[in-house]
Amino acid sequence: MTLDALTIRDAGEADAAAIVTIYNQGIADRIATLETEERTPEERKHWLAARGPRHPVLVAELDGTVVGWGSLNQFNPRKAYDFVADFSVYVERAWRGKGVGGGLLRALIARAKQLDYHKLVLSAFPWNAAGMALYQRYGFRTVGIYKEQGLLDGEWVDTIIMEKIL
Ligand SMILES: CC(C)(COP(=O)(O)OP(=O)(O)OC[C@H]1O[C@@H](n2cnc3c(N)ncnc32)[C@H](O)[C@@H]1OP(=O)(O)O)[C@@H](O)C(=O)NCCC(=O)NCCS
Questions:
Q1: CATH class of the domain whose range is 3-120
Q2: pTM of the model
Q3: Within 6 Å (CB) of ligand 1, which residues are found?
Q4: What confidence tier does 3 reach under pLDDT thresholds 50, 70, 90?
Q5: How many whole angstroms from 9 Cα to the centroid of ligand 1?
Q6: Cα(first)–Cα(last) distance of the chain, in Å?
Q7: What's the mean per-residue pLDDT of the chain?
Q8: Closest residue by Cα to residue 130 from 164, 156, 104
Q9: Nearest CA to ligand 1 atom 5
């Protein structure tokens, strides 16, 4: 299957199972997030239902199969931060490195602009090579590195903060 057929659309309740499978892969791989608690489809249905119009979840679909998802997340509930969004992007293991993440990030940037956000920010592991390449490719700059920011499986880990003014 080629990526020509990649469709990116808003997620619905029926996508919860695919989203949770892909998210749990990212959690288990220990490459994407400080989150360690795997989720269930039921929990992701509530997560989807609780999101307002400024915090969409998008899915990338190939021939009817969801191969990745991304979301615009609230950065901080204080009013002054209304124009900053944090985001997530996760691609199914077998589909990584084939352009799906790029497609999702382009769609997230476009949606963020439509929603009148001023800036996107992210937090990642500096050793996530695919993530670092992806974010640099789409113009994110490094704000800095939090040293020993999380205790993951008994090891202190650094996180990198990046931003892009839209
Ligand atoms: C990080 C992730 C979203 C990137 O999506 P992807 O579909 O794999 O990436 P793409 O194929 O769109 O490639 C994006 C860029 O990364 C590069 N890249 C992809 N995989 C790479 C790897 N393993 N090592 C180094 N660079 C890599 C590509 O060459 C491309 O760069 P270019 O445009 O300059 O050529 C995806 O790998 C993933 O879901 N990983 C696990 C979850 C995760 O880490 N999420 C991000 C949390 S911060």
A1: alpha beta
A2: 0.96
A3: 26, 31-32, 89-91, 96-102, 124, 128-131, 133-134, 137
A4: confident
A5: 20
A6: 33
A7: 96
A8: 104
A9: 101
What is the C-alpha to C-alpha distance for residues 93 and 95, in angstroms, rounded to an integer? Answer: 5
Residue 117's pLDDT band, with cuts at 50, 70 and 90, is very high
Closest-CA residue, ligand 1 atom 33, reads 137
Answer for the pair 124, 145: CB distance below 8 angstroms, yes or no.
no
Pairwise CA distance, residues 101 & 44, whole Å = 20
One-letter amino acid for residue 165 of the chain: I
Residue 122 CA, closest ligand 1 atom number = 48
Give the amino acid at 137: R
In contact, 41 and 20? CB cutoff 8 Å: yes
Torsion of CA 80, 83, 88, 91, to 10 degrees: 180
